[in-house]
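FORM 12-B: Structure-to-Sequence Request
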């Protein structure tokens, strides 16, 4: 069966799932889980659990991404509404990946408003993640969209920061709340002075501009210690938790210490 046909039926058959990866932050009481990144999975009836790489690029090329991103937005907001009723989870925010084409589409703001109305969630607990590449095609529209979303209380994060083409001018031109440093820089931390220098540069840039920073892909205590020493406060990565099918609220004791 063609992927297009299967994707068409996947929403109707309720085959998509959201996994959550914890986002942690150093606060007054130590390291805490402050939010969750929503990461889509497809529970394919024959092929098992599929990662986004197996279908998101195809969905982007063929336009299915519109329905998928709408589904994710709604499902993540519904989950957020459930957390709001749960004392162990009501402090959590959720971060949602949005494809560029969808983010820049005329209907996107309306789609977001509908989901907010339907679910009644607090918009200040929602962050939308877009990649730099997304925005290159239409900076003016990206800016307008971001201002519109921000006026609702939603935060905007630039994902995979540092790997695109015009990162620095984006920071000047776009109302971005959060930078998520691409995990490739962290991977090469121990063996590359260049990676360390770039990371330090990004940390300084964010702090100087008053933009929040998230270091992605933290896998080892050594990486975590280095980032902390450089002033980084918010992190994601396998050291703290992998994507799982329900929002995790507790860190392993050896990590939170
Ligand atoms: O979960 P995993 O690390 O395999 O995700 C890989 C990438 O897939 C993410 O970095 C993100 O760019 C993309 N992705 C994950 N979930 C979603 C989603 O719900 N919508 C869109 N558009 N992209 C997603
Ligand atoms: O930035 P993006 O949205 O693409 O990042 C999410 C992806 O990164 C997910 O597919 C997730 O599984 C993966 N990921 C999250 N933490 C880590 C990590 O510490 N190491 C590695 N290699 N991948 C990670
Ligand atoms: Na992301």
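FORM 12-B RESPONSE
SEQUENCE OUT:
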């Amino acid at each position: 069966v063609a992927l297009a046909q299967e994707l068409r039926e996947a929403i109707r058959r309720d085959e998509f799932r959201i996994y959550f990866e914890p986002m942690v932050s150093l606060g007054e009481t130590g390291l805490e889980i402050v939010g969750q990144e929503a990461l889509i999975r497809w529970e394919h009836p024959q092929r098992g659990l599929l990662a986004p790489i197996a279908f998101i690029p195809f969905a982007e090329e063929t336009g299915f991404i519109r329905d998928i991103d709408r589904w994710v937005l709604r499902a993540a907001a519904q989950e957020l509404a459930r957390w709001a009723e749960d004392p162990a989870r009501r402090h959590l925010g959720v971060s949602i990946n949005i494809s560029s084409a969808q983010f820049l589409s005329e209907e996107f703001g309306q789609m977001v408003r509908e989901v907010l109305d339907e679910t009644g969630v607090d918009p200040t607990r929602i962050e939308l993640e877009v990649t730099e590449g997304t925005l290159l095609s239409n900076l003016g529209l990206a800016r307008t969209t971001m201002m519109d979303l921000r006026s609702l209380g939603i935060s905007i994060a630039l994902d995979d920061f540092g790997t695109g083409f015009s990162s620095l001018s984006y920071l000047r031109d776009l109302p971005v709340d959060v930078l998520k440093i691409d995990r490739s820089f962290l991977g090469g931390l121990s063996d590359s002075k260049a990676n360390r220098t770039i990371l330090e540069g990004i940390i300084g840039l964010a702090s100087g501009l008053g933009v929040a920073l998230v270091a992605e892909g933290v896998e080892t205590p050594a990486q975590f210690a280095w980032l902390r020493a450089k002033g980084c406060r918010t992190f994601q990565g396998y050291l703290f938790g992998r994507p799982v099918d329900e929002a995790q609220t507790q860190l392993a004791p050896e990590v939170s210490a």
